[in-house]
Design goal:
8 helices; about 30% helix; binds iron/sulfur cluster; alpha/beta
Length: about 250
Amino acid sequence: MSFYRVTYHDVRKFATLHNFGCTFKCPFCSYKLKSGANGQPGHAYPRPERFLTTEELKNALRKVSPKQVYFMGGEPTTAQNIAELLRYAKRELGANTRLGHTNGSCLALECLDGANVGFKAWSENLHTAITGQKKSLIYDNFSRACDAGLNMAANMIYIPDLVEHKEFEGTMRFLSNISPDIAFHIMGYIPVPGQPYRRPTDEEMSEVTALCRSFLRNVGVSHLTTEQALDLSVRDDRFRVRTIAG
Ligand code: SF4
């Protein structure tokens, strides 16, 4: 789709371009926290009234001269001008470039320094059922990006009765074979409207964390309530940003 907003963190000096839309349709997508049971996964709510032109996006970035430029979604690689914006951020501004959240379906990008890939499942059938896409697309892309020297990180959502230990173990084996130093983040599922799944218990989160830490050295965890997820800036200063365009 397109970028509709640019935010900037005055202290940490990073800018973020926010894209509307995603190629996946994950039923548990956290965008539904705001858009409700009938909301479109991966689509910000409410729908932006207008989208920013490439020139507007470049102007916003030029004014703040960020050290880092993040591209977020939905799925940021669906924005048609992302290649041009990556080139601009990297070559004209000298910024470090990163997909702050991506489903990993399109990672072969010039001028990209790194990406944070949200894995959904390890089992082929479950992966296809959740995302509508083949698992190999995502896992192979991640592997290739690591081989190409990109700074890669990964995350996965623990969802009781859906994405549990077996899924995490498979993904852990895959990642640790690439490198035990890959940064990995476990997110406890935040129940979204219209889905039958519950929030994991503290004990379940501890167990899956121990499992992941038996494979990887750099594992972080978040286990937010719905209220906490709806205002991340209260707990994490990285979300204390101001809008500079859109
Ligand atoms: S890939 Fe991420 S943004 Fe897209 S639908 Fe799935 S959870 Fe939502």
